[in-house]
Amino acid sequence: MTQRRLRLLLAEGSPGEAAAALHELYAGSDPGLDLTVVSTIATLLPTIKVVDPEVILLDLALNLREPIDAVHLVHRTAPRAPLIVIAEPAEKEQAIRSLAEGAMDYVLKGHIDRHTLERVLRTALERNTLTGLTDLLRDRLTGLYTRDGFLTVGARRHEEAMRGGSSLVLICVLFENLQALREGFGPGAADRALSVVAGLLRVCCRRSDVVGRLGEAQFAILGVDAVAPSAPVMRDRLAQHLAVHNQTCSPWGPIDLRTSIGSWTSQDAGTFAELLDGVESRLRLDVAEMKN
After folding, report:
1. What is the pLDDT of residue 229?
2. Segment 131-144 mean pLDDT
3. Where in the chain is the domain with CATH 3.30.70.270?
4. For a designed S-S bond to 231, which of 58, 92, 261, 288 qualifies (C-beta 3.0 to 4.6 A apart)?
5. Alpha carbon distance 170, 249 (integer Å)
6. pLDDT tens digits along 32-52
7. What is the 3-state secondary structure (H, E, C) of the chain?
8. By the 8 A CB rule, do 242 and 230 touch?
């Protein structure tokens, strides 16, 4: 499944159904599995810090009083490690509830075989890879995704929208007077203004939306699971926040933003990169027409 040894931490009681399935899955594989097994929650929490696992499997039966508390504790201790819950079939409702407490997936006892584990582990490792990659693809000044990061995350959201039959909206933004601000007030003022713009974009979004700084003065917002009419609403919300900011009379004067919007549905063809290019092209065309 992987090209290196997978560090996996398993918290499971007897009879060890998950451990047996893991050993079967990785039997004879190269480089194989680095598996650490504990049998109590009290042992699990300190072991997380020692092992630094890439994936954690947690048997809900280890916490008899309130299994969801264990999920919350483990996720809080290792928020970046994908957490997979193991539950009895009768505990399926609790397993589903655990997804809201930080678990990524669950498997039911009696159905833990190599194929099931291969599926959930592949999903966990894909998420780990994407999270690690996109953390590296962030703009240092604003904390937003760079163009590469935005394309990476956007392509994943596009794939999810295709599978789920949902829609996307996209807003591209140009900071029109950035260069004039830099020339008039210096690079420090320009950097502060860029951070202000990043903040304005964030407050216009839901937590599920994606925001990026695509170039020196270019930004974008990807609205996830949103319908086409949402794009003008988001653009109007941005204009309102910008107007409020500009009324504060910052030392360098107002910030001027130009926007272009587009949308995509699961019935549409094309890639996410093509969607972005189309919306950016309209923004560039608008700017060119203003200059003529």
Report:
1. 66
2. 76
3. 137-291
4. 261
5. 30
6. 688 899 988 889 989 998 888
7. CCCCCEEEEEECCCCCHHHHHHHHHHCCCCCCEEEEEECCHHHHHHHHHHHCCCEEEEEHHHCCCCHHHHHHHHHHHCCCCCEEEEECHHHHHHHHHHHHHCCCEEEECCCCCHHHHHHHHHHHHHHHHHHHHHHHCECCCCCCECHHHHHHHHHHHHHHHHHHCCCEEEEEEEECCHHHHHHHHCHHHHHHHHHHHHHHHHHCCCCCCEEEECCCCEEEEEEECCCCCHHHHHHHHHHHHHHHHHHCCCCCCCCCEEEEEEEECCCCCCCHHHHHHHHHHHHHHHHHHHHC
8. no
Res. 2: pLDDT tops 50: no
pLDDT of 284 strictly over 80: yes
Question: Which residues does 181 contact at the CB level (< 8 Å), separation at least 6?
Answer: 189, 190, 193, 252, 253
Fold of 137-291: Alpha-Beta Plaits (3.30.70)
Tens of pLDDT along 70-116?
A: 888 888 888 888 899 999 999 888 888 888 788 888 999 988 887 88
CATH T-level fold of 6-135: Rossmann fold (3.40.50)
